Amino acid sequence: MTMAGTKRAGGRYGLLLLVLITTYLLAAFSGGRAVEGIQVGLVAVVLVLALRTSPLPGRWPVLIGAVTAAGSALAIWVSLSSTETGVGAAELWKALLLLATAVLIVRRVLDMPAVTIQSIYGALSAYLVIGLMFAACYAAISHLGHSPFFADGQPATTQTFQYFSFTTLTTLGYGDFTAAGNGGRAVAVLEAMTGQVYLATLVARLVAAYRAPGRNP
After folding, report:
1. Do 32 and 74 touch, CB atoms closer than 8 A?
2. Of the ranges 52-61, 124-133, 194-203, which one carries the lowest mean pLDDT score?
3. What is the C-alpha separation between 160 and 173, in angstroms, rounded?
4. Residue 81: pLDDT above 80?
5. DSSP string covering the chain
6. Confidence band (pLDDT; 50, 70, 90) for 5?
7. Is residue 163 packed enough to be buried (19+ CB in 10 Å), middle (13-18) or exposed (0-12)?
8. Which residues pair with 179 in a beta bridge?
9. What is the pTM of this model?
10. Which pairs count as long-range contacts for 176-182, CB under 8 Å and 24+ apart, including other chains?
11. Where are the domains of the chain?
């Protein structure tokens, strides 16, 4: 097998991981509706990269790519509106894109014949995608609901949703941000369970099976 064939077979998740980290940091250190629109665009790019590294048969990649481009353009336009419903709809679209991305990445990682550094990058990428996906779900609940998402009057922004999502996913449990409503609490429990199962199964399995290049069995 040629080097190019090996790269295609193993995927190139380093670039995907870099884009995901950029997406997270952009939202973490910036604010405003414009940044939310940019993040929707970056999430669409993440899905396209996942399609390239986790190819699907037939015309599925073209179809998904076309739907992603059209839906994301609409979501960006809606996210720049002044209505809470429009922003909530854009967050739901973002969550859907991230869910599809996570499925594509995990599917490809599990199909790899051997565990490589790209497998580890892929697993880390999927973990970040899951955290961003739940953050988008919390934002959608907040914008589409009629009551504050966080208890004790804590600010509900993109930054705090991401912070709450990743502290929940990793089960750090700082307690400085808690969901006030039953819907938010239920989703938070699902995220905590997902994070624990993901780390205890997929990531642990990959790390245990990984062998550095040139290392003797």
Report:
1. no
2. 52-61
3. 14
4. no
5. --HHHHHHHH--HHHHHHHHHHHHHHHHH--SHHHHHHHHHHHHHHHHHHHHHS--STTHHHHHHHHHHHHHHHHHHHHTSS-HHHHHHHHHHHHHHHHHHHHHHHHHHHH-SS--HHHHHHHHHHHHHHHHHHHHHHHHHHHHSSS-SBGGG----HHHHHHHHHHHHTT----SS-B-SHHHHHHHHHHHHHHHHHIIIIIHHHHHH---TT---
6. very low
7. middle
8. 150
9. 0.88
10. 177/150, 178/150, 178/151, 178/152, 179/138, 179/149, 179/150, 179/151, 180/147, 180/148, 180/149, 180/150, 180/151, 181/141, 181/145, 181/147, 181/149
11. 3-209
> Could you tell me how many residues make up the chain?
217
Token couple for 52: 């390239």
Q: Which residue has the tokens 């009551």?
A: 147
Residue 10's identity, in one-letter code, is G
* Token pair in block for residue 190: 């699902």
